[in-house]
């Protein structure tokens, strides 16, 4: 007697199924890159991804959608990105998580009282350019390194260090070497991936700084200029730096 195979879901899990959201986002399937960006934001700004939190819910839904064939591993439906905003109040802070313009999670945490009314440092939780590069290893780690990636990584490193040239042995030098070698390799499985270059980016950058909108614009321009189609990868280097800049701006 053969075992009955589980039925394939008829529809993807949409944002409206997981969160109390409305409008266009409610009808969009939860995609893997959206979940990865939220995980990056939570890990960077809050220190971890907790069980039952927004990122965990998105990851579960995205995994089911991918396994059912509704979305691909590289898909992203949150065009406006994800943001986490922290509002400091006496004795507590309010954490608000959004996908695009829609709030998908909000809660408060108790914080120690201080002598001043709002004593949080503006840059204490800011996401650095190096951390944004490391996040790319999560969101696009399986992508082979191309010239556009190497150019974006170089632009990011130069802005992080404030130098006019790349650092010997740094991430930009490694990315350029990988792009050169990958151009000579025919099979993608044999090529060096972004995850190989960026998984420990912060340790390879001699100095770092919080990502800003100007940094994001510079990195995006470098990636586009070196792409044959004058485009950027939806979850690549420039997308991660742009997401970090948005998060930093919303945290001010």
Outline of this structure?
The protein is mostly helical. The chain has helices at 15-18, 23-26, 32-46, 54-67, 129-139, 147-161, 171-182, 194-198, 201-204, 213-225, 237-250, and strands at residues 82-89, 92-99, 102-110. The protein is 44% helix and 10% strand.
Keywords for this structure?
single chain; 252 residues; mainly alpha; three-stranded antiparallel sheet; 11 helices; 3 strands; 10% strand; globular
Q: Which radius of gyration do the C-alpha atoms yield?
A: 20 Å
For the largest beta-sheet, the strand count, sense and barrel status come to:
3 strands, antiparallel
Mean pLDDT, to the nearest integer, reads 84
Residue stretches low in confidence (pLDDT < 50, at least 5 long) are 113-122
H and E order: HHHHEEEHHHHHHH
Number of strands: 3
Give the oligomer, counting copies of the same chain as homo and different chains as hetero.
Answer: single chain
Terminal Cα separation, in Å? 63 Å
Q: Provide the helix percentage.
A: 40-55%
Shape, please?
A: globular
- Order of strands across the main sheet: 1-2-3
Q: Total number of helical segments? A: 11
- Strand fraction equals 5-15%
Structural class determined from secondary elements: mainly alpha
């Amino acid at each position: 007697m053969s075992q009955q195979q589980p039925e394939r879901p008829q529809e993807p899990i949409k944002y409206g199924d997981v969160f109390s959201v409305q409008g266009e986002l409610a009808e969009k399937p939860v995609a893997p890159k959206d979940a990865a960006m939220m995980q990056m934001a939570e890990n960077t700004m809050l220190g971890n991804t907790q069980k039952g939190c927004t990122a965990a819910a998105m990851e579960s839904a995205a995994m089911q959608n991918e396994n059912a064939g509704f979305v691909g591993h590289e898909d992203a439906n949150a065009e406006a990105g994800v943001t986490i905003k922290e509002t400091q109040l006496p004795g507590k802070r309010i954490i608000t998580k959004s996908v695009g313009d829609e709030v998908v999670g909000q809660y408060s945490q108790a914080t120690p009282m201080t002598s001043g009314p709002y004593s949080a440092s503006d840059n204490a939780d800011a996401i650095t350019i190096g951390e944004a590069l490391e996040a790319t290893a999560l969101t696009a780690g399986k992508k082979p390194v191309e010239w556009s990636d190497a150019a974006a990584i170089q632009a990011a490193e130069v802005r992080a260090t404030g130098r006019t040239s790349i650092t010997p042995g740094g991430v930009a030098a490694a990315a350029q070497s990988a792009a050169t070698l990958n151009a000579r390799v025919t099979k993608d499985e044999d090529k060096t991936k972004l995850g190989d270059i960026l998984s420990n980016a912060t340790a390879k950058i001699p100095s770092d700084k919080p990502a800003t909108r100007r940094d994001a614009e510079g990195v995006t321009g470098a990636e586009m200029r070196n792409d044959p189609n004058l485009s950027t990868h939806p979850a690549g280097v420039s997308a991660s730096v742009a997401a970090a800049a948005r998060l930093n701006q919303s945290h001010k």
